[in-house]
Amino acid sequence: GPNGAGKSTIVRILTTIVQPTSGSGRILDHDVVKDPLNVRKQIAVVLQETAVETLLSVRDNLHIYGRLHGLSTAETQRRAAKVLEQFDLKDKQKEKAQDLSIGMRRRLQVAKVFMVDSPILFLDEATTGMDPIIKRQTLDSIRELSRQGRTIFLTTQLLEEAEALCDHI
User: Fold this and answer.
1) Taking a C-beta distance cutoff of 8 angstroms, is the pair 164, 146 a contact?
2) Is the pTM of this model over 0.85?
3) Tens digit of pLDDT for each residue in 134-160?
4) Which tens digits make up the pLDDT trace of 20-41?
5) 154 strand-pairing partners
């Protein structure tokens, strides 16, 4: 949809960041207003704004995200190694996020949600600022998650991206 259509607003409501002014929303039978903690346990989110810990390294961003989502240290390390490879971040793993380009920070932000197995993944303009090669790899990774049975809620302004990824538009 176009700018101002409400794409990010609906994501913010469904992910319990803001409360709806009217109506209701449910995620896996949990009300987004009455049961926000259980909603958050079922989702992973990439917001439109870049959300990485800028003073931490790429690797530490992944590790902290995994640990905050209840992964063991060993499992966090295993998944981080896979995600670093999958998102072509291995060469940058020791760099602080603040030293990365905007596109690389976005790539790191998207990569973080691939650390966890939440059943629902919200992606708000996830590929914005990515170079074409990494964007294609990211879209392939999203498509694979969908094939594995995860629900992907995608917002985008790019019709071709939506058509390539979505079962329902």
Assistant:
1) no
2) yes
3) 888 888 888 888 888 899 998 888 888
4) 999 999 999 999 999 999 999 9
5) 123
